[in-house]
Amino acid sequence: xxxxxxxxxxxxxxPTAAVTAVAALLAVSQGAAVVAVASTVLASQLAxxxxxxxxxxxRDAAVxxxxxxxxxxxxxxxxxxxxxxxxxxxxxxxxxxxxxxxxLVATAGLVSALLYNWPLKSxxxxxxxxxxxxxxxxxxxxxxxxxxPRPPAWLLAAGALLGAGAHFANALPDLADDAxxxxxxxxxxxxxxxxxxxxxxxxxxxxxxxxxxxxxPPRWYGLAAFAFAAVVLPIGGYLGSRRPGSRxxxxxxxxxxxxxxxxxxxxxxx
Length: 270
Prior knowledge:
75% of the residues lie in helices and 0% in strands. By secondary structure, it is an all-alpha fold. It folds into 2 domains: 1-149, UbiA prenyltransferase (Tetracycline Repressor, domain 2, Orthogonal Bundle), CATH 1.10.357; 152-270, Four Helix Bundle (Hemerythrin (Met), subunit A). Helix 3 runs antiparallel to helix 5 (77-95). 49% of the residues are buried.
């Protein structure tokens, strides 16, 4: 396989594309420069994705991940690591197009995500980088607006809660493989049930922040999302507890996370 397609596979293309798209749409809703924001977030996501695959190459080989380009021999570990460094440096340069404060926040979010990849992924504080980096994303977009207005507290809280919930939801499918290779982050210490409860609780709190945090009376769609989360999360947890191996709880968490992203985009300038 040529190097470029292998690098694309190694960057975690689905979450990279999704986060970049959300950032671009958020820039539109906030009145920020879309190209500057999207290019910064894309470079940051590439740096994080490539760093993750370079650091985890031995683990991926140990658990038999043929979908991973490095263990499959499609690209060298060194090439992926170099690409990560280049993307990280590009992130800082591109972030400066949005102003010094925005660049500082974008860089902090990048550093936090890289620290998750190593060494915090296997520690009890593994959730912290997710909370910090997800809070940094909307903060960066708001600061990228003309005049660099201060990001509202409710927006930062919603981003942090959404990120923390995403950490537990994202870890659930890989708990067994992670345990085989010695990863002991907070989700692994809580176990499948504890992680499902944590993901649901954090995402419900994020929904509440997005529904009731913006100034003025709550919008109808915020109330609808809040009621939806209050109903489907317990149902998913109940079905998951009654059927061993069921992915009902995991799927409901993902649906609520998607609803939270929509609320975030609908919030408008803070």
